[in-house]
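Chapter review: from sequence to fold.
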Amino acid sequence: MALRPKNPQSQSDQLAQSEAAQQDVFLREVDEALRQDEMLGFFKRFGWPIFGVIVAGLAGLAGYLWWQHSQTQAAGERGEKLIMALDQVSAGRFKAGDEQLAPLAEGDDSGTAIAARLMRAGIALEQGRRDDAVKIYQAVAADEKAPQPYRDLATIREVAASFDAMKPEQVVERLKPLAIPGNPWFGVAGELLGMAYLNQGKDNLAGPLFAQIARDANASDSLRRRARQLAGLLGVDAIDDVAKAAGGGSPDAQAPEQP
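The token string follows.
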């Protein structure tokens, strides 16, 4: 049995669909126009401030990158100049080296500047200008912005240069905080501290201290030899009897074994 064909849409139905489609397109166009008007109004009202913020941010970023590059480049140049000055000093040309170090030592408290100041103080000592050297060491030691290792080194160098003019009590006060086993400056600070103890007549403090320095693996060989000899002169064996001399008993003393 043959199926009957579906009835085609009436003209009124087709017209209604066409009108609905046109209405939908119209509504989308109106909505898009409203969005454009809103965006245009927003940019007219806030566009320049936003643009200004973006430009300022980009300018700030560019400035920071330029500053960072300049700092890195300047640090590299200062490092090269410091090495050149060190070469002059190593060759015994102290005057030329000091002239190259002078501008590096001025200005900021960077590691390069502090190192240049300490080198200038060393040159002053080599040239017999002890007062000038001590003045520089004192300034570096008191500079709270300088790295602590540089300040400690300046303190030791200052005391070493002024040792004969200082009272033993002053030497003890300045160096006792550095003459501690484990401290990087224990050896050199301890040797000066031990000599101050000797000047005070405190052999009982100097002997064990020299013995500790003699056994310090981080100290130089020459310093350890001097400390061992001084400890021996004071009746302290720098190898076996350190604990006994310090009041802790002999390291070889052991409790008797139980039968």
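Two observations follow directly from the output. The first helix runs from residue 11 to 90. The chain has two domains: 56-161, 166-250.
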